[in-house]
């Protein structure tokens, strides 16, 4: 029988033998591969179930923690998972409004003189209340910028405020002034008691503003007045009659709480 099979094999072409061998190999691989796929499906299903179980357990733990936090917050209102943002005040007019002024400055009134001064710029904060009667009060100063009595060391006092429309650009501006004091002001070139002038543009249109819109004070500029030395006109000394304002700093304004609630 073996001889007959061998003789038949010898009589078959080589390509026929190869084709039959490949056919048997394909059948074997298909059968074996099917078993492997079934095993992979079983492993994947088991892993998925394990992940779902772990996720469910974590969700339960999170729910328990959330309930505990709710109970704790009910006992102490100050404890919260969210920081409530303090609502900023807003004003629809300058009168009876409060503003935190952050300024920086250096006296430039004598920059064109031959005798140059070694000046150190000054930075600071002060909160002002523009009263209904046109006066200005200092309400709050930064602790770092105050003396032991919590009195401002930058300014001795602020004078009244005024609001007017500039005829050149037809925009509304707020202006006020203050007397300076303290060593930091002196190092910046502002001598004790010298006057500093503040001007800011008032941006607010009541015809287009919504009920929650408030005015803004922008483009704040600080100037100082310098007397012009004009010499003699005949027998009259005109020195000190003419003066000009020199830019000597800038400032920004942010709405602040009124003094009654500070």
Oligomeric organization of the protein chains = single chain
Secondary-structure element order, N to C: HHEEEEEHEEEEE
Averaged pLDDT, please?
75
Gyration radius (Cα, Å) is 42 Å
Q: In which order are the strands of the major sheet placed?
A: 3-2-1-10-7-6-5-4
Distance between the termini: 114 Å
Number of strands: 10
Q: Please state the structural category.
A: alpha+beta
Relative strand content:
25-35%
What percentage of residues falls in helices of 4 or more residues? 25-40%
* Low-pLDDT segments, ≥5 res: 1-34, 79-85, 232-239
Would you give an account of this structure?
- The chain has 262 residues and is α+β, with helices and mostly antiparallel strands.
- 29% of the residues lie in helices and 32% in strands.
- The chain has three helices and ten strands; from the N terminus they run H-H-E-E-E-E-E-H-E-E-E-E-E.
- It has an eight-stranded antiparallel sheet. Strands 8-9 form a two-stranded antiparallel ribbon.
- A hairpin with a 2-residue loop joins strand 8 and strand 9 (236-237).
- The radius of gyration is 42 Å and the shape is elongated.
- It starts with a helix and ends in a 6-residue tail after the last strand.
- Residues 1-34, 79-85 and 232-239 have low confidence and may be disordered.
